[in-house]
Amino acid sequence: MWTDAEASDRALGGELGELGIGDVLALLAGPPELVDLTPLGGAGLGAR
User: Fold this and answer.
1) pLDDT at 47
2) What is the pLDDT of residue 17?
3) CB distance 39 to 45 below 8 Å
4) Cα separations (Å) of 31 from 5, 6, 21, 28, 34?
5) 33 in the Ramachandran plot: left (φ > 0), alpha (ψ -120 to 50) or beta?
6) What is the helix, strand, coil percentage profile of the chain, to 5?
7) Among positive and negative, which fits the CA dihedral 7, 10, 11, 17?
8) DSSP 3-state assignment of 5?
9) pTM for this one?
């Protein structure tokens, strides 16, 4: 989130912004990938 249009332009106008936008567009070009995960443990998981 940027405070104004100038800050947005500065953040997205550099080399990092160009590379980042390309990566995002590539991800959005196809359907989402489903990944099944199994929690191994941790706080809030509860006793088995």
Assistant:
1) 63
2) 57
3) yes
4) 30, 33, 18, 7, 9
5) beta
6) 50, 0, 50
7) positive
8) helix
9) 0.31
**CB 2, CB 11: distance < 8 Å:** yes
What tens digit of pLDDT does each residue of 1-48 get? 778 888 887 777 766 556 677 777 777 888 888 999 988 888 887 765
**What is the predicted pLDDT for the residue at 40?**
85
CA atoms of 44 and 14, how far apart (whole Å): 42
- Residue 39 to residues 2, 35, 47: CA-CA distances in angstroms? 35, 13, 12
Q: Are 11 and 17 in contact, with CB atoms under 8 Å apart? A: yes
Q: Which two tokens stand for residue 38?
A: 């199994």
Report the pLDDT value the prediction gives residue 34, as an integer from 0 to 100.
Answer: 92
